[in-house]
Amino acid sequence: MKTIVIVLKNRNGNDRKDVERTQGMTYHSLDAIRDEFPNASIDSGDLGLYDLNEFMDACNDSDDDCPKDLMIDLDEVWIGYVNLKE
């Protein structure tokens, strides 16, 4: 089992509830996790799915040398987690 961190851009008042609704649930694929957020896409940057190491790097690597798409601004997103059963 692997922990997947959900990063959902704060776009409206329901985003937090969407993340909390899935909190701690177990999924069998990344696609199944994405399906829980039909109004957000990874391509648009509204949704990010990270394993724990990737998430920590994205939060900690916030210097000027890190590409913008690899940084997470915690002031603009809701954070949650789910389990991925591989």
Textual characterization of the structure:
By secondary structure, the chain is α+β, with helices and mostly antiparallel strands. The chain has one domain. 27% of the residues lie in helices and 27% in strands. Strands 2-4-1-3 form a 4-stranded mixed beta sheet. The longest helix is centred in the middle third of the chain and has 9 residues. The radius of gyration is 13 Å and the shape is globular.
Tags for this model:
alpha+beta; 27% strand; globular
List strands and helices in order, with pairings.
Blueprint: E1 2-9, H1 15-22, E2 26-27, H2 30-35, E3 47-51, H3 52-60, E4 77-84
Parallel strand pairs: 2-4
Antiparallel strand pairs: 1-3, 1-4
Overall domain count? 1
Structural class from helices and strands? alpha+beta
Strand content bin: 25-35%
Rg on CA atoms, Å:
13 Å
Count helical runs. Answer: 3
Major β-sheet strand ordering: 2-4-1-3
Précis, in short:
Helix content is 27%, strand content 27%. With 86 residues, it is of the alpha+beta class.
